[in-house]
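Re: [ENG-882] Designed sequences occasionally contain unexpected residues at chain ends

Forwarding the minimal case from QA. Structure tokens:
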């Protein structure tokens, strides 16, 4: 109970600091020719899942109903843009063994441009459970990538999780063709009532610097160096990771860009009783198409060190696919697929060594300007190295969503 209250008040403190920072940012930029807008939304949904805990044991199917209010605030002027999103999702299941879930989600995306510099601050403050999560589709700048959450399916019980991620960066144009970018990332994760599990609170700090050189209007090269520190005090573990990579980016056309980066990392992992050093490669390959009236996609393949809720870092091979295509003026199709293969660095097989797959095709029908029906099917599969059996899950989701017309004021 003490841990619950400690985690609860810690999340509330983060919320106040998060909102305070947003208010300061809104008031700090020059408001000349600024547009302010608000877009409220609400969704009513239902779901069916034949194995919500993704377990290899016998599992009863559950159905649930949900309501999801959401509001997006935007402020834009010629030199700056700030976007804030807040979302609450309340889910009630028909199974008494699965408690009702609520997800609180607050996002920030900001950009401020001067003559030679670009300042960005992106953030996510999320309070969810290990059964109910929301995707973090907020980092949409073409030169910003987001970290994938590789803790899906980590445990088979519903535990409250609190997650703060801040991502400030500064980019400076050295010349007409070269630029320097400095980026810091904070990831702070802590759980409530997790004593009966192996979940461990952790923090990860990452500092990176990128030097890029534009070879032509469509091609550029870059070199990135990063250092990160992962700490799990309850597990007496600290991990330092150092990496360097070289990358190449090519614009195939106005909306399509591809990138490839390859490098080397060295990792030092230490506990009170042991120390372990390891080396490996880092890889990042991607292609994305955005701002298209008909089709947009974002496909990436990565190998890097990721933070884990089991109190350690893991080497993670990841594939992430997001596609949206407009089939007609009112009908759109979506596809979200992802997979990751996590391996612990110590070499011993643990419950963190696993392969996870997820694929979710969906349809959206806009039957009026403001109303839409969304439906999707999601298949998940997980194979743990410690378990000879694989866990599978089939789920169906449907929702009716209403979006108020955007309320905008210019001054």
């Amino acid at each position: 109970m003490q841990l619950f209250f400690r985690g609860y008040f810690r999340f509330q403190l983060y919320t106040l600091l998060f909102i305070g920072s947003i208010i300061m940012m809104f008031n700090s930029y020059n408001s000349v020719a600024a547009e302010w807008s608000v877009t409220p939304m609400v969704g009513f949904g239902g779901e069916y899942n034949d194995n919500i805990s993704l377990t290899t044991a016998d599992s009863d199917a559950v159905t649930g109903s949900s309501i999801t209010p959401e509001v997006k605030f935007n402020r834009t002027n010629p030199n700056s843009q700030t976007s804030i999103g807040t979302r609450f999702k309340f889910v009630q299941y028909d199974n008494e063994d699965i408690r009702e879930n609520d997800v609180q989600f607050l996002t920030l995306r900001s950009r401020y441009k001067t003559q030679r510099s670009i300042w960005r601050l992106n953030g996510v403050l999320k309070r969810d459970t290990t059964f109910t999560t929301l995707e973090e589709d907020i980092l949409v700048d073409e030169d910003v990538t987001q970290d994938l959450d590789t803790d899906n399916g980590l445990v088979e019980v519903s535990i409250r999780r609190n997650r703060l991620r801040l991502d400030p960066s500064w980019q400076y144009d050295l010349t007409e063709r070269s630029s320097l970018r400095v980026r810091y990332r904070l990831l702070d994760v802590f759980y409530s009532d997790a004593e009966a599990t192996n979940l461990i609170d952790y923090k990860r700090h990452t500092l990176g610097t990128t030097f890029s050189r534009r070879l032509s209007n469509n091609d550029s090269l870059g070199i990135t160096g990063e250092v990160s520190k992962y700490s799990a005090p309850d597990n007496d573990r600290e991990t330092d990771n150092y990496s360097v990579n070289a990358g190449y980016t090519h614009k195939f056309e106005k909306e399509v860009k591809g990138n490839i980066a390859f490098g080397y990392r060295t990792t030092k992992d230490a506990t009170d009783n042991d120390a372990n050093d390891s080396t490996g490669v880092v890889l990042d390959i991607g292609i994305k198409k955005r701002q298209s009236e008909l089709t947009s996609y974002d496909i990436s393949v990565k190998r890097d060190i990721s933070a884990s809720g089991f109190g350690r870092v893991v080497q993670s091979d990841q594939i992430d696919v997001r596609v949206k295509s407009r089939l007609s003026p009112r009908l759109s199709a979506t596809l979200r697929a992802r997979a990751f293969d996590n391996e612990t660095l110590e070499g011993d097989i643990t419950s963190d060594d696993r392969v996870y797959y997820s694929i979710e095709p969906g349809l959206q029908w806009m039957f009026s300007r403001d109303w839409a029906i969304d439906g999707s099917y999601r298949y998940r599969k997980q194979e743990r190295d410690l378990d000879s059996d694989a866990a599978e899950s089939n789920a169906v989701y449907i929702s009716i969503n209403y979006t108020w017309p955007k309320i905008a004021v210019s001054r």
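QA comment: On inspection the terminal residues look reasonable. The mean pLDDT is 86. Proposing we downgrade this to a documentation issue.
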